[in-house]
Write a structure and sequence with these properties.
The chain is of the alpha/beta class and about 250 residues long. About 35% of the residues lie in helices and about 25% in strands. The chain contains eight helices and ten strands. A hairpin with a 2-residue loop joins strand 4 and strand 5. Bound molecules: adenosine-5'-triphosphate. The site of adenosine-5'-triphosphate has 11 residues, from strand 2 and helix 2. GO terms for molecular function: ATP binding. It comes from Streptomyces cynarae.
Length: about 250
């Protein structure tokens, strides 16, 4: 896999250090759902080229934080900047464009479209930003090739293994060279072998300069893939430490 293949994010991981350019800046973030306070004053900065894992007990607000950074939901208070763009100031249309162009997301249950073969699941991400179909399919095939599943390009999600589905989802997430790759329990539905392969893939991508934010319950995923661990409880950040990546 090459830097050129994956992203426009790589230049951030330069010799000047990885945290000199923030890809994510979250300040005083609060989110209420009725009486539930899901986020209660979260501030976090992620530098270009960093891999950050967020861990904490169920219900502590991890996915809510991820969704705010992805522009999938709006905060009750506080600010989110991604790649220098202020999400709070965006119209719904601008936010939809931001989601397509700036962030790639992978989820526990893949979220692939059942009635499209692998290649079209991937290509669609670029077609939605206006890339002509032929060009989108060409890049989709390159990515599937880089991820080792080009031979599965015409297979529908139902006939793919869990690991293959997640690889298709990763290819889709990388399609528009996102500044930020967000992963919500990316190995949660995989057996240990497929999980290891997805972890290796995330490590490779980060080493090529892709900025990564992942939410997980899996200590092994966090320590293998991330350089920094953020812990949360009750909607707040309760701790932060640098990780030495384990083998
Ligand atoms: N759309 C929603 N409507 C109402 N409440 C919500 C919504 N989304 C999240 N919540 C609540 O906000 C809190 C934080 O939820 P969130 O999903 O962010 O936690 P989490 O740490 O990701 O949990 P898990 O590890 O179980 O996925 C929980 O109390 C949850 O019930």
């Amino acid at each position: 896999m090459t830097t050129e293949d994956i992203s426009g994010a790589a230049p951030g991981a330069d010799s000047a250090g990885v945290r000199d350019r923030a890809v994510v800046r979250v300040g005083g973030l609060r989110k209420e759902y009725g009486d539930t306070v899901a986020l209660d004053g979260v501030s976090l900065e992620i530098g270009a080229g960093e891999a950050v894992a967020v861990m904490g007990p169920s219900g502590c607000g991890k996915s809510t934080l991820l969704n705010m950074i992805a522009g999938l939901d709006r905060p009750s208070a506080g600010s989110v900047h991604v790649h220098g763009e202020d999400l709070g100031g965006m119209s719904e249309t601008a936010l939809a464009l931001f989601r397509r162009r700036r962030v790639g997301m992978i989820f526990q249950f893949f979220n692939l479209i059942d009635d499209l073969p692998a290649i079209d699941n991937v290509a669609l991400a670029a077609q939605l930003t206006g890339t002509p179909a032929r060009q989108a399919r060409r890049r989709a095939l390159e990515l599937l090739n880089e991820l080792g599943i080009a031979d599965r390009q015409n297979v529908y999600p139902a006939a793919l293994s869990g690991g293959e589905r997640q690889r298709v989802a990763v290819a889709r997430a990388l399609m528009n060279r996102p500044a930020l790759l967000l992963a919500d329990e990316p190995t949660g539905a995989l057996d240990s072998h497929a999980g290891e392969q997805v972890m290796d893939l995330l490590i490779d991508l980060n080493e090529l300069g892709q900025t990564l934010l992942l939410v997980t319950h899996d200590q092994r995923l966090a320590t293998r893939c991330a350089g920094r661990l953020v812990t949360m409880a009750d909607g707040r950040i309760t701790g932060e430490r640098t990780l030495e990546r384990s083998a």
